[in-house]
Specification:
about 240 residues, globular
Amino acid sequence: MTKPDIFKYFKTSPQIIRLAVMMYVRYPLSLRNVEDLLHERGIEISHETVRFWWNRFSPLFAAEIRRKRVSRMRAHSNWQWHLDEAFVKINGETHYLWRAVDHESEVLESYVTKRRDRKAALKFLRKSMKRFGQPHVIVTDLLRSYGAAMKVIGNVDRQETGRWKNNRAENSHLPFRRRERAMRRFRRTRSLQMFVSVHASVHNHFNQERHLYSRQNFKLNRAVALAEWHQLGAA
């Protein structure tokens, strides 16, 4: 079955659209920053055009990246997950960003809630396990909501807590925090949920962990990631 052309009826080249979306999501840039950088490359567009492209295409790109990643991850066992929650302000009201990270620092799931109780933790766990399967070990902080949710799903024996064990999940918030400052925070829960889902997928796609590879392998992996990005949404 032929994939539908998501760029149909758009006069702008798909390469330019992909470039604009990647610059806005991957780097801590504002819409006007992206407009200026594209102008330097001879591409004349408005920052509102960048906003429209982001709203239209970034969820499609993220879904395609996530679909390929999930299919690869289900072929292997889920060894260890790290769970953590971060405080996010929306119009002055505190919300909670739940995040699941695997043992290789890949962000598996991001979920926004208004509360930090057992019900929210249980919904987050069930959503993550439905997509990625069940891990052998789940590392959390000392929040009691995790333990209460684990009892419901029968995973108490798989939970581990410790002072430094969950640093991997804590560090996963840093790219989002940099992006949050550039965007001057969020105004709606829906826009925050959409952004964290897209940002996590794009970050995973380009996160090569260069400190673990030689320079030659890093350049190869980076080239492969860019080549795959250039094929997103292709019919």
